[in-house]
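Two folds, back to back.
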Amino acid sequence: MASRWQAALAGALTLVVTPIISVPAVVTNHIVRTSSFSLIASARAESTLFDARAALEQIPVKGRAPKTGYGRNQFGPQWSDVDRNGCDTRNDILKRDLTAVVFREKTRDCVVERGVLQDRYSGQIIEFQRGEKTSALVQIDHVVALSNAWQTGITRVSRRSRANGEGSVYEIRNRNRWGASINNFLGVRISKSFATKDEAHAWLLEQKKARSQGLYTSNENPKLTVGEYLLNWVEHNKNHKKPATTRNYSERIRNQINPRIGHLKASSLSPIAIEDLISQLITQGYAPGTVLGTYRTISAAYSDGVRLGILPQNPTTKVKLPRLTSTPMKQISREDAAKIYLCAMENPYMHARVELGMVCGLRPGEVAGLRWSDIDWAERTLTIGHQVQRVEGKGLVFQSVKQGKQRSIALTDVQIEILKKHLEYQNLYRPTFSRDEDLIFPNTCGGKLDDRRDSHMWKQLLVKSGVKHYQRYQMRKTAFSNLYAELGDIRKLLDYSGHSQVSTVMKSYVFATEDSANEIRRSIDACRPKQITSDIETNGAEND
């Protein structure tokens, strides 16, 4: 036989707004009687000639117990923030059921100051005004009054279970398992089954902890694999990232991640699986930059997944990375730089290209994005405001520069002459352009130059110069290393380069030049005590 306290408990968590007048008794009776439907269903199974009304009348109803020990505090905090939305339950209900709501200032639309209640029970229209004497005009209570629940059996339930939001653990008898369920911090009910009761309780505690921290603990799509999620993530973010960044992410996913862990479930990816992936990459000889890039790709993707509620947690936060020492590419040696520059001078196009890359320090994409209109011939300045990047489905397009804001650099008289000579040379074949985009370094049709074509011309120049292979980006490092050696002022170089962090420039772009090394040698000798120096020179003379 169903217990009446179960009916009371079922209704105890349902909230309604009512005026100060009492709720009709039929509401409580209706709740109690419908809660015994399981008995009716059982009786119907025993007889096909079932009479619902007759069976309902046969259900015994136990009288009320005394109120001994009753108190509102027996049911947990009165106005807690059950759904973790930053607003207590009373104000949530007032917002839901009142019209013409006016909120208190600076409460983020939480605290209701006044509003209008159309009472569904009495038909009255009640003007709500927050205040010591007026707030009580609108009461919020459970459909089944807590005092009634206390007298009809809820005392058999632990105090902890009576409170809102504690979750529940229950036996799934037909499967010989245990289940647990709880509302997450968004108020969404989540459930899971376990082999033992202890496992169910442990999971419930874990969910409460995550809820208190505002974390998701459930996966939107349990069957989603790591590979599927990462590819979807790249597609979702391609309009918010630079094309080069999107390409780097895609390459890491395609080449390093998916072949090794792409088949794993996205929601159950563990820190140890990521650490194993990193170990594999190191063992297989991948460069430290590639290994770190792989880790950062997973970290960024899972961080977004947790933020959007797609994934329950970010396992990379618990990964312990090994010590990875990355050796940055240094500048081009002085001897090789001289050979490259001398060879480039034979062609006005390549002379201007190497001048802007190896002397001014512009990035390859920035060089490709330069227009003749970016040069102020009178003021002798060059404005760098965009770069050329390849975007999937769009081809070559103009994008903002890496740092997001344009900068202007000074040009010397020599550089002005180099660029003018290149312009004269370009004007000779400009009539053959099928489209003219006013680019300083266009392709043969006058349009945007493909990065692969620029790289090919650079390699041809290196071969012709008779030097070893260098990356185009090493021209930028050469320029900044030489400029810093001449300027001796990192702030001036920082402004010139367009970077905002001194550490970035010093770590990745500025290296000791050969002149600097010789200067250090002279300084070392100068620091040696004079007497020791004299003795060494004297002994050397005697030995001679």
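---
second:
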Amino acid sequence: DRILGIVKQLNPTAKVLQSNYCNVDIKEVIGTGTFEFEKAATGMGWLQSLHDLAVRDINGQKKIAPTPETEEYGISSFVYRARRPFHPRRLYGLIHDKFVIMEGVVEDEGDGEEAVDEDDSENAGDEDKSQDAEDVEDENGASGDGSAHSDSDSWSEVSVEDAESSEDFSKSIDPKDAAKNKANDPIFKGLLRSKGFVWLATRPGLHGEWSQAGTMLTLQGGGPWFCVLDHAQWPENEATIKSIMSDFQEPWGDRRQEIVFIGEKLDEAGLRKVFDECLLSDAELKKWERAMRLKNPDTMHDKLAQLFEDGFEDWPELVHDEHDGHNHATIKA
């Protein structure tokens, strides 16, 4: 029953065949003709968990909770959501020793054609860079009379706490060690599956795709957030647009953390706490917001990289092109 409960939570529509000594009719597993892509894409347990959590009366209080049948086997799920970015260093510090992290690697292209494009873009962006340089100088504390500001909200580099962190961004942990660490961790040991979107402070244009099963965690660049796309690049279906807009929240659009966690005897409070600790603090968020207001994208990304150490693999590059008076964002691998 326990195994069946786990399978049902991970894939509610899966047909489960029980057998002794692998005695299964081959016709039950080969050439069944039962696969439907759309059904498979929309029937995954993690995706249904976004919608199946219901308001239930628990101990006299109204709470969002999983359906009762999953509780019978100790299997539960919840959705972690947040509206501020993760600090890459702290997120890595949380996950690096409990999971085997797999990342997509972006290959470098030839330098010749790119050099011409960069030269053109530099000329086009000189005015913005000049203004941004003045903004950065002002924020660094230089006033009109040459004196320096000492307020705590001025620009700063990576915090001392992060700079002195003993973890590096090595991805070479032994899978056996990761499995042992996860199994012995009181917060992560019950986690079976998680999937969703992440928002890193240093990568404001693209969402990260998070997909974990057991000790294997894939974290790689996904598509652009809809808030950075011209509306001409949005889907045309009204229902889809309505769904997209439901994820928007001022001032940063649809940027968000949204991860579904599924597991056995999950420590929901513990997981929420450790992921909350990876979010930017109020002071860090102020610096991040100032960097985001810089007009030139290159200057903005450089400043974010100075503020928040990020050693994850590169993601596909988000390129903004001007066509017919519209700003079109495209992914450059």
